[in-house]
Amino acid sequence: MAEDVEVRRRPGGRSARVVAAVHEAVDALLAEAGPGGFTVADVARRAGVNPTSVYRRWGSLEAVILDVEAARLAETAPMPDTGSLRGDLLAYARQAAAEIARPGRLAFLQALIGAADMTAEQRQSFLVQRAMQFQGMLDRSRERGEPLMDFTVIVDCILAPIYLRHLLGLGVSDADLELFVARAFTAK
Amino acid sequence: MAEDVEVRRRPGGRSARVVAAVHEAVDALLAEAGPGGFTVADVARRAGVNPTSVYRRWGSLEAVILDVEAARLAETAPMPDTGSLRGDLLAYARQAAAEIARPGRLAFLQALIGAADMTAEQRQSFLVQRAMQFQGMLDRSRERGEPLMDFTVIVDCILAPIYLRHLLGLGVSDADLELFVARAFTAK
């Protein structure tokens, strides 16, 4: 099993090339047609792969989009390391608030909402990579002897209001972001 | 201007019939095709009205969906009146958590995300009706001499984590809902 994963991930392998081609195709289609503007068949055609390869690996269009968006987030939104948990969280919150205001950056939320039949496990898979990066931030904080914080508190108190306020057209000022971070520290 | 609004809203008037027919058509199409599965032309055909009437009144498909969903929320999710703000908020949170788990009930979020070119004012219009109902709850609370709470605190601390946790496949237990309400009371 571990061997299989290693083989699949080997750079330059056939599967790695399929993944890279599909990611590139989805990126381009998201930019051109927007989320909801293309199908798995479009992705496959553009990537030069068989649609069944896409379904076999990802299962649905929404799952492909989530995968691409998770990879993009990991690349374009590195975890800050400012020397304190409060500083890290505030820097992350500022980055997230700026990012979602850019066009097309809510594709992952749209995929999550559009995929009515996606299981809780499939939804969580989007979070796993991100949660692991947050864990690094939280581990550094613990090593410095700062108060412990759970990842779900970050989701509830910081990420959730940034996203919902944006969707509802309520602005988020820098003072609001400081407030969200402060709430995360007082949250039970 | 006021007269025009009164005429437009007169029950049985031509405009009232258009609104009712369009709402009914959108309701049916949301159930059959899901959000993203139909166009303004489909709505107009089904409602037996001219597409230009739909564009003139609402401006976009997303705006029509938001209007229909706001009306449905007002009908199906009445504001609780339990005798305390804490009780009202917990009852509302339970109602919201149960509601979004039902199929098709995230149409309004999808409309908000899909409408990239919707202005902040248009996004807020969805909230206005709901905010006014919350204001009744908050007014009763003030009259009882309870601590003051702002509507945005309810959005940030209670509604946002319920929605985002659902989308991310993280469960929301009843204990979580109590926690969200408690956080709203301690939030600055």
Tell me about this structure.
The structure is a homodimer of 188-residue chains. By secondary structure, chain A is an all-alpha fold. Chain A has 2 domains: 1-59, Arc Repressor Mutant, subunit A (Orthogonal Bundle), CATH 1.10.10; 80-188, Tetracycline Repressor, domain 2 (Orthogonal Bundle). Helix content of chain A is 73%, strand content 0%. Chain A is built from 10 helices and no strands. In chain A, helix 5 (61-76) runs antiparallel to helix 7. The radius of gyration of chain A is 18 Å and the shape is globular. The N and C termini of chain A lie far apart (40 Å). Residues 1-10 of chain A have low confidence and may be disordered. Chain A binds chain B through residues 34-36, 103-104, 106, 109-110, 112-114, 116, 118-124, 126-127, 152, 155-157, 159-161, 163-165, 167-171, 179-180, 182-183, 186-188, and chain B through 34-36, 103-104, 106, 109-110, 112-114, 116, 118-124, 126-127, 152, 155-157, 159-161, 163-165, 167-171, 179-180, 182-183, 186-188.
